[in-house]
Amino acid sequence: MTDTAFYQTTAGGLDPSERKPVRKRARLRRQMYLAQGASYIVDAFLLWLYHLAGTTAASSAIVYLIIGLGWTVSTLALSEHHFNERFQDHYLTVPQSIGSTTIQLGAIYLAPEVGFYFVCIIFIVLGFGALRMSARQTGIVWTFAAIGLTAVFTCTDKAIAMPMGTPAERNIALLCFVTALGRCAFTGLYGASLREALYRRGNELKTAYARIEELAQTDELTGALNRRYIMRALNDEAERMERAGTPLSIALIDLDFFKLINDTYGHLAGDEVLRNVSLAFSAEIRRIDSLGRYGGEEFLLVLPCLGKEEAVAAVDRLRMIVESIDWSAISADLRVTMSAGVAQFRPIEAPSDVLNRADQALYQAKDAGRNRVAGFGMAHRECDFH
Question: Is the pTM value of this prediction over 0.70?
Fold first, then answer.
């Protein structure tokens, strides 16, 4: 079955973005199965050496090799056909561990004269599988292995041993334990690689989460905070102002005749104007200030530690910057200006109240001719910086 056929036959299909992870898992499983096949070949070779030493029958090595490679080829074929992807555990660790344990139990029964070597292999199988299994799954595999060993040790008359009678047997036994130690070392390295992969994945998730948080907070077009988060910033600063007793002002900023810009130069040009104005604001304001897109062509600027007069002066600098921006890349005739209304928080005041007063000041600036900054409650000569 090809990848495409598999995606079409699974319930609901898979999103194309999932195909790469599926192939990656299949590649990792392939490596594991090849290592497993190599392990069975090593064991069969050791059994053959025991046969040459006169300890075991030749059939033990042959049967063990056929069953071990048969099991490996079968599981590899299922993996290559993406059968594993139907399950939550894509590596089918429990069936794999139980199957491998069954083969070792059969080897103990088939060649009890070297049975203790295969007991060692059962420990390795369980240790390797436990790296990917939950506590419950590990308990299942352990129980199966314990029952199987109990059956072999107590329900048969097999003399399970590790022969050391001749120099050849001692050397082969040494080779058995050296290869078993090598597989233990491989299990440790595999566990270390899993921990490293989890560490990298954790860092990737942190980065992705930070990016998601950033995207959730910012307005996609302008890069400023979206309305939800600028209001959160406003509430946070209001609470901080109440605790610290410091001044806090806000400004509602509106681009003059923005609808006319859209109608004359097109919405793409309007988007470009919003982006550039937002960039100009962001480059000029302080680090403690917060800028957000309040709606349409309207921005909300939160100005901690500034009284109304200082805030009006700061926002008027922004007005002059916007007025001086060169828009010739869009049109030589394009000119963009802004109007703004500034209000200062009063003690024990809700954010909605100061927003209402800033909005009134904004309308005052528009009524006075636009391209100006007005502070709520300030005299006309003080609040217009045009």
Answer: no
